[in-house]
Amino acid sequence: MAEAIADAGAVPRTGRYRWLIVAVLFAATTVNYIDRTMLGLLAPTLGDELGWSENDYGNIVTAFQAAYALGFLLMGWLIDRFGPKIGYGIAIAIWTIGHVAHGFASSVVSFMMARVILGVGEAGHFPAVVRASSEWFPQKERSYAIGWVNSATTIGVILTAPTIALFMRILGFDWRETFIVTGVFGVVLLLLWLWLYSNPRESGKVSTAELAWIEHDPPEKIERLGWGAVVTKREAWAYALGKFLTDPVWFLMLFWLPKYFSTTYDVDLKVVLLPMVVMYLLSDAGSILGGWVSSKLIQTGHSVNFARKATMLGAGCCVLPLLFVSGLDNMWLAVLLIGIALAGHQAFSSTILSIPPDMFPKRAVGSVVGLGGFAGGIGGMIMAKSTGLVLDATGGNYTIIFAACTVVYFLAVLAIHLLSPRLAPVAIESEAAAA
Fold first, then answer.
1. How many Å apart are CA 60 and CA 108, to the nearest integer?
2. How far from 162 is each of 27, 166, 295, 402, CA to CA, in Å?
């Protein structure tokens, strides 16, 4: 490993076209999260107009989460089978259809169907991001690129309310027209993706020097690893278990923070946006910083194993301030502590997303990320149900929930270390012919 890093250091870092791919993926992440979040902000309006009960809305949310989890398995395989250009293009088309379908829905069942389509399509996003990053960035720079893309998740959440306000309050659309018209975001994204994306060697827009930088990692010994082989590898389950433990924290923050601030401080985050903006901008900084630290450690001669795990442990430490949030009278101190915790989560997320290409060949990365996304989705459903039960039992006290969130990152690093002590490439002779 040390020799490989030394040899790689002789290749000059040059050219910038690969960062255009990051910019497109950043825009795609933003659109993905706007489409995902819009229903949540419009839920009070839709509930009043359509007569939803709390259970009805819960069923609609559960339909999305279940489809999103299962969709990871399908989309991960699809992206490995057809490549990120075609595979992700299909995913964008599916989720855009699902998004627009909300504008034609009128019953709980039809909204559930729209959310299922949206969830299946959106599940293709992160497998495509990691697969594309593995094609366009060498190992020592990859987590930094993923950190930038991952930071757009919160940009999408922040921009959802202004987007709704633009179309409904300024342009005068109703909620149905807003869902339909904002589908143009997905159409433009799809055209942009198909126009700009290809692998570096076929793009025709990458200089010889930049291509040498992108491809300077040691060549892979195998071209492809079939799905059947992926699920038998403990390295795949190391990643999946890490996602199972930590992804639910992000789902918890997305779905429960507005309620927490409403009940604790009598503040509606959909109206008073500044606390949400501060917390999510801090999380963006964590996403980029976590990716940068992991990449920098590798560039300065540390092993990939040390760089990834040390960064994840540091990120986990940043989540510890959640222990002191419950019961705080000062809202802005709570905003700061939760923001630091969100930054820790996003730093962890950027780093763990970089692990599949460290261990698996490029044409298996989508399947591995899909397996992890499925595990994270299942964990998110368990977290949602557990959170409701704990809040009911404690009268709305979040102390136990926040404490549990601080532990899972260290358990995740331990699990990853036990299943993959060196983050070494998977040991297999050849599965190039696997289906």
1. 7
2. 16, 6, 34, 29
Cα angle 77-78-84, degrees, rounded to a multiple of 5: 110
Distance CA 234, CA 416 (A): 9
H/E run at residue 111? helix 108-122
CA angle 366, 369, 370 (to 5 degrees): 80
- Domain that includes residue 275, residue range: 2-419
For 46, other C-beta atoms within 10 Å of its C-beta total 18
> Which residues, other chains included, contact 153 with Cβ-Cβ below 8 Å and sequence gap of 6+?
29, 33, 287, 346
pTM for the full model?
0.88
Per-residue pLDDT tens digits for 187-226: 999 999 999 999 998 888 899 999 999 988 887 765 667 7
CB 362 within 8 A of CB 135: yes
88 within domain boundaries: yes
Kindly report the CATH number assigned to the domain that includes residue 112.
Answer: 1.20.1250.20
Ramachandran region, residue 15 (left: φ > 0; alpha: ψ -120 to 50; beta: rest): left
Domain count, the chain: 1
SS3 56: helix
DSSP 123: T
Assigned domain for 267 exists: yes
- Whether 255 is covered by a domain: the verdict is yes
| CA 143 to centroid of chain Cα atoms | 13
Residue 429 located in a structural domain: no
Contacts 24+ apart (CB under 8 A), 54-63: 56/108, 59/108, 59/112, 60/108, 60/111, 60/112, 60/115, 61/115, 61/255, 61/384, 62/381, 63/112, 63/113, 63/115, 63/116, 63/119
